[in-house]
Design a protein that fits this description.
Blueprint: E1 15-19, H1 25-35, E2 41-45, E3 51-56, H2 59-68, E4 79-87, H3 96-104, E5 112-116, H4 121-124, H5 127-143, E6 156-161, E7 167-172, H6 197-208, H7 211-217, E8 223-227, H8 233-239, E9 244-248, H9 255-258, E10 263-266, E11 279-284, H10 290-302, E12 306-314, H11 320-337, E13 342-347, E14 355-362
Parallel strand pairs: 5-6, 8-9, 8-11, 9-10, 11-12
Antiparallel strand pairs: 1-3, 1-4, 2-3, 4-7, 6-7, 12-14, 13-14
Helix pairs in contact: 6-8, 10-11
Length: about 375
Amino acid sequence: MHSIPTAPRAHDALGLLVQCRPGFEADAGQELQACAARLTFTLQAQAQSGFVFLALGTPQAHDELRRRIDTSRLVFARQSFQVLAVIDELPNRDRLTPLVERIEAFNERFSAILLETPDTNAGKEQSGFLRRFGPLLEEALAKSGKLRIDSPHLPRLHAFFVGARQVWLGLSLASEGSAWPMGIPRLRMPKEAPSRSTLKLAEAIVTLLSADEQKSSLRPGLTAVDLGAAPGGWSWQLASRGLRVTAIDNGPIAPSVLATGLIEHLRADGLTWRPKKPVEWMVCDMVEQPSKIAPIMADWLATGRCRRSIFNLKLPMKKRHEEIERCRDLIDQRLRAAGIKYILRIKHLYHDREEVTCYLTRR
């Protein structure tokens, strides 16, 4: 991988920018390389930068990349957009004027503006500026007719600030990227939940399931199993939506979780325990080798013990992309052998660290 130039020229900017968790640039780059095979491209990344740029030579190359890949399904990409230009050396006193001038030159209209930064300490320092700057930019573009919030079919405008004086500008369709700036949903920690792990499941639900899927499969009265449940963050998340949960763990479950009245705790080994009756959901956040967890998850689905599952795969420090592909193959082998058509979605979520979260369901 090559380092991103300090001041890339505007005509060098055509391509795809992918935002990721700092430290996972190589993994995001591997995914992009696999998707862009046989295209002429240059992959530019810098360790701990929080993003990767796939530079393409022509607009036609980007159209070809779009046909080949659903960027919303990239594992390590939180957010992505088609880069059109980079502005360097924004003035300290008036950043609005040159930015608006460059955006208006695109000859495009937009349904929304996403102001973003890398998810780094330096990026977080710009959050106050973006809160003040955002309304000014929206007002200017609405006044010129470029911003049309009543037209959701139009592309979204991304303004990705790398430092205070450099901004990458580009476009995405709502179907191609996350609905949230930087791909980070704004979730609050529920005071009743026993651990912050509950946010991982909450984020998985809103990220990996469509609104219709959430409505149909997370209804009060449905049943679920939580393998490796202690202290009960994932069980609580399901119970808060009205599901009846069997929490499997030899460890203790927090009293606040049991107080919901919807959770039964069974002291057992989550790797070997099986239900007597099929359930709608099985969730699992156990600290085990991913190649051990993946076949168990697939077996639950193959044998009809559950209809759908959300589970985490704890990744190794190296060759993360390869390990994910290995787990995909293990799941595919088991379900193909059972003659089951399935959907598998995998994402490295904001609340994940050295792991990815998977959603697996029958078609």
